[in-house]
Specification:
The structure holds two protein chains of two kinds.
Chain A: H1 3-11, E1 13-18, H2 21-36, H3 42-63, E2 66-75, E3 78-87, H4 95-98, H5 112-119, E4 122-128, E5 132-140
Antiparallel strand pairs in A: 1-2, 2-3, 3-5, 4-5
Helix pairs in contact in A: 2-3, 3-5
Chain B: E1 5-8, E2 11-15, H1 22-38, E3 43-47, H2 56-71, E4 75-79, H3 83-92, E5 101-102, H4 105-122
Parallel strand pairs in B: 2-3, 3-4, 4-5
Antiparallel strand pairs in B: 1-2
The chains are: A alpha+beta, B alpha/beta.
């Protein structure tokens, strides 16, 4: 690969404002479209779209609004996709608890965040009560 | 986008044509609960072949549809879950629990025919 192509790949990103359940669909479609350019298999594209759906729904459910950013990344020859979901919602007091399967304070099954972590290769969550939550996750091709 | 629902003998067939928002799925659940009574349907087939993602909300709503129609006297079978979708659902930790599934529309009809024959035999 040419060096400038690698740089371009690293810079390609898409932002989706999340305010309603329709935006969840938009985020996963944008994510799938962008990730398809990184050469992911079709099953991994579905995995990425599903993980985006879960974290975007978490925004709608708990923070009402936020943003999902999807970008192509590379680590040497390795290509991947990074997804960052941010909101200025109520924040999560106890992250260990929400990352446990089946824990939910909303309408959900409590599968969203731990499920997204299982789908992706890397997963980080940071949150401050009263300030908001950021989820950063990556999948490598 | 609303899901078209067709009636074929004593079955209702909901054929999902495109990507669905959460609201579309909730509408489908509510519509089917009504239509089972209106058409005196004994079975419901939900064809999800066109869906490229089944996340936790969609899975939960499909289960809710199956339980709701069951309370109204109709058996629901989900057909057409794509291979990639099935793989992602398993990784995410989702199941449809005891909701019956079949490969495609044809298998779904066969399933319901057998199921209803069985219930006649038991009557």
């Amino acid at each position: 690969m040419l060096p400038n192509e690698a740089m371009l790949a690293g810079n390609e990103a898409t932002h989706v404002r999340i305010q309603s359940s329709a935006d969840i669909v938009a985020a996963r479609q944008e994510g799938r479209a962008l990730a398809s350019r990184a050469g992911f298999s079709s099953s991994n594209l579905t995995v990425i779209a599903t993980a985006i759906s879960e974290i975007a729904r978490n925004i709608v459910e708990y923070a009402k609004e936020g943003e999902v950013t999807i970008m192509l990344i590379n680590d040497g020859p390795r290509k991947g996709v990074e997804v960052i979901a941010t909101d200025r919602g109520p924040g999560i007091p106890d992250i260990a608890t929400v990352m446990r399967d089946g824990y939910s304070t909303g309408r959900g099954m409590g599968i969203g965040l731990p499920g997204a972590r299982r789908l992706m290769d890397e997963f980080e969550i940071s949150s401050e009560v009263g300030k908001g939550t950021t989820v950063r996750m990556r999948k490598w091709g | 986008m609303a899901v078209p629902i067709l009636k074929q003998s004593h079955y209702l067939i909901a054929s999902i044509q495109s990507v669905l928002s959460d609201k579309d799925l909730i509408d489908l659940r509510d519509d089917l609960a009504e239509l089972v009574g209106e058409h005196r349907a004994r079975g419901v087939i939900i064809d999800v072949t066109a869906l490229d993602v089944l996340d936790s909300f969609a899975t939960r709503t499909l289960r809710a549809i199956a339980y709701t129609t069951k309370l109204r006297g109709a058996e629901t079978v989900i057909v057409g879950i794509q291979p990639d979708v099935a793989l992602a659902m398993v990784q995410l930790g989702l199941t449809l629990q005891d909701v019956p599934t079949a490969l495609d529309l044809e298998e779904g009809l066969t399933f319901l025919n057998q199921r209803l024959e069985g219930s006649h035999a038991a009557e």
